[in-house]
């Protein structure tokens, strides 16, 4: 197949990890007979510097026309003045919104060779394979805000349509995995959560009778995620709970440098990016871990291009490189570790 992939390297280590990932996609293209074209555009701080805005119109236009978007990271100390009018992160929020991306997928599958990097006991982690789906467009982060001398408010609202569409995405993933969906809310106190629970129950009963549904309150979910992570398959939740639970879940896998994400909407185009930030402390040194970005590219192959075998081959190649202890500094013993390029090349070699 032919696919147009828009590449947004962004800031900090973004350009390094993206540059290391493109050869992996090229190796997939040549092994499986596909043609991928890559078009680079600016987003984030680099876009502010060059165009005066974090999401230039040309970047958004290219993303709209593309089959998928691969993103590095945005932000950094250069643009973090709290009084600044424009910030790199606004570019990310704006492109997600413009593309209608409402479901943020974060797979958490601790790799055997990296278990020691997690603060959680290894025996709890063996066999953990969770997909967290966070709603991305509604809830308290987007509700009206007020502020006076003496108080402040944040409005939390959710519509039936917003809940239905993210639950359907999560349920479809559960159906293709182990057939179990855990919906997380706070229905004992929040009205939006009672709506969430009602809509989820109806959608699952009417459209996914083959997927088992379990409701969890967010406070007990936070506990169970660490005490019995193996019990979960797909977890779906609203925006703020998802923000908090996905960061918590990421600790199960050890290094931030191993965690991929996809942001999807109702169309095919999605944005694929590592969950970590621009890591300004190591930017420019060529030592960043590229695996999270490579695993994000695997999600791109699976979810935007429908290339399941190719996605699985990339994931297997990363696993094999980790098995062979091809570790960057974040995973290796102190003072050791290979550079970004070497780690990425280990994946390319295993795909060839
Ligand atoms: P953001 O606000 O953009 O999410 P952050 O403040 O959460 O950023 P990160 O940029 O994610 O921070 O970095 C957190 C720590 O993890 C830093 O010490 C950074 O060097 C390290 N880190 C992040 N990504 C990687 C990577 N790919 N390889 C190695 N180390 C990384
Ligand atoms: Mg962060």
TrEMBL record:
Gene3D superfamilies: Isopropylmalate Dehydrogenase (3.40.718.10). Mg(2+) binds at residues 219, 243, 247. It comes from the Bacteria. NAD(+) binds at residues 76-89, 277-289. InterPro entries: IsoCit/isopropylmalate_DH_CS (IPR019818), IsoPropMal-DH-like_dom (IPR024084), Isopropylmalate_DH (IPR004429). It is found in: Cytoplasm. The lineage of its organism: Bacteria, Pseudomonadati, Pseudomonadota, Gammaproteobacteria, Lysobacterales. Homodimer. SMART domains: Iso_dh. Keywords: Amino-acid biosynthesis, Branched-chain amino acid biosynthesis, Cytoplasm, Leucine biosynthesis, Magnesium, Manganese, Metal-binding, NAD, Oxidoreductase. Its EC number is 1.1.1.85. Pfam families: Iso_dh (PF00180). This is 3-isopropylmalate dehydrogenase. It comes from Luteimonas viscosa.
């Amino acid at each position: 197949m032919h696919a147009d992939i828009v590449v947004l390297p962004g800031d900090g280590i973004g350009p390094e990890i993206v540059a290391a990932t493109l050869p992996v996609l090229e190796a997939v293209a040549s092994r499986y007979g596909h043609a991928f074209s890559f078009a680079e555009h600016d987003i984030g701080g680099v876009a502010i510097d060059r165009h005066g805005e974090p999401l230039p119109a040309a970047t958004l236009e290219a993303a709209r026309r593309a089959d998928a978007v691969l993103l590095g990271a945005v932000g950094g100390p250069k643009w973090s003045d709290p009084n600044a009018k424009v910030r790199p992160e606004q570019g990310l929020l704006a492109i997600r919104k413009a593309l209608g991306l409402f479901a943020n997928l974060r797979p958490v599958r601790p790799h055997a060779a990296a278990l020691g990097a997690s603060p959680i006991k290894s025996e709890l982690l063996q066999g953990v394979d969770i997909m967290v789906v966070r709603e991305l467009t509604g809830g308290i982060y987007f509700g009206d805000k007020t502020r006076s001398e003496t108080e402040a408010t944040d409005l939390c609202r959710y519509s039936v349509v917003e809940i239905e569409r993210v639950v359907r995405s999560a349920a479809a993933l559960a159906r293709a995995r182990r057939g179990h969906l855990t919906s997380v809310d706070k229905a004992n106190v929040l009205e939006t959560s009672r709506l969430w629970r009602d809509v989820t129950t109806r959608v699952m009963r009417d459209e996914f009778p083959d997927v088992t549904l379990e409701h969890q309150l967010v406070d007990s979910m936070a506990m169970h995620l660490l005490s019995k992570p193996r019990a979960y398959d797909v977890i779906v939740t609203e925006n703020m709970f998802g923000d908090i639970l996905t960061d918590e879940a990421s600790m199960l896998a050890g290094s931030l440098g191993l965690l991929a994400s996809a942001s999807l909407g109702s169309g095919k185009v999605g944005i694929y990016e590592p969950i970590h930030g621009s890591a300004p402390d190591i930017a420019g040194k060529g030592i960043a871990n590229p695996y999270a970005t490579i695993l994000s590219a695997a999600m791109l192959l699976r979810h935007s291009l429908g290339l399941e075998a190719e996605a699985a081959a990339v994931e297997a190649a990363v696993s094999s490189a980790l098995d062979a202890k091809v570790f960057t500094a974040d995973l290796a013993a102190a003072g050791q570790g290979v550079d970004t390029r070497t780690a990425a090349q280990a994946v390319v070699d295993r795909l060839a």
